Amino acid sequence: TPGRMPGLSQVDSTGERVYLRPRGKSGGHGVGWSEITPYKFTTCAGWDEKPVSIADPDGTEIDAKFASDEEGDLKIILAPILRFSDFPSDPRIQDFLSLANFIEGFGPELVGAPIQDEDVVNSYTDERGGLEYYNYMLKSHWLISATVYQRRVYIMAIHATPLQWRRSFSKLQKMAASFSVLVPA
C-alpha cells in the first residue's frame, strides 16, 4: 500500500543505510495531500522503519518513524505551512519563524512539552541543498532539524534515552545533519 512503501536502503560497506522517501508514499497523512517533495537521511544498521497512520497517537502529521533498540527513535513530521499563516509566495524557514520562535512553537508537538530557552543546549542554522535548516539540541536528549519548502515544514526529530545518548550521540548528530529535502535543480 502507498503508506508502507519502503525507502530504506540495504546496509552499505560502512554500516550505513540511506532513507529516501518514495514518491507516491502517503505516510500517516491519508489521501488528498499534494505530492510531497522527497527527503533523505543517513542512518546506521539497526534502525527500522515503523508503521504510521492518520490515527497515530504521536500526531497526524508524522510522515515516517524509525527506531533502534540501541540508539533511539526518529520521526519525520510534515506540516502544511498554511496551518499557521497565509503566505503569499513560497516562503523559506527564515521567512516563517525565527530560530528561537520555531522551537518554542513546535516544541509541544515534537517533544510533548513546552520548550523554554533553558531547555535548548545548542541551536544553529546551516544550508543544505539550497535551503536553510534550523537545528537544535535539547537537554532532554532530542536533536531536531527543520526546514520549509513548497509551503510545507519538514522536521526530523530524534530522541534517545540517557544511556542511548551517551553511547550513540555522534551517530545521532550525523543522522540529524544528513536530513535534507531534495529540491529539484
TrEMBL record:
Gene Ontology cellular component terms for the protein in this record: extrinsic component of membrane; photosystem II oxygen evolving complex
Top-rank taxon: Eukaryota
Entry-linked Gene3D superfamilies: Mog1/PsbP, alpha/beta/alpha sandwich
Domain PsbP C-terminal per the UniProt entry, residue ranges: 84-181
One protein family per Pfam: PsbP
Entry GO MF terms: calcium ion binding
GO annotation terms (biological process): photosynthesis
InterPro entries: Mog1/PsbP_a/b/a-sand (IPR016123), PsbP_C (IPR002683)
Protein name per the record: PsbP C-terminal domain-containing protein
Origin species: Ostreococcus tauri (Marine green alga)
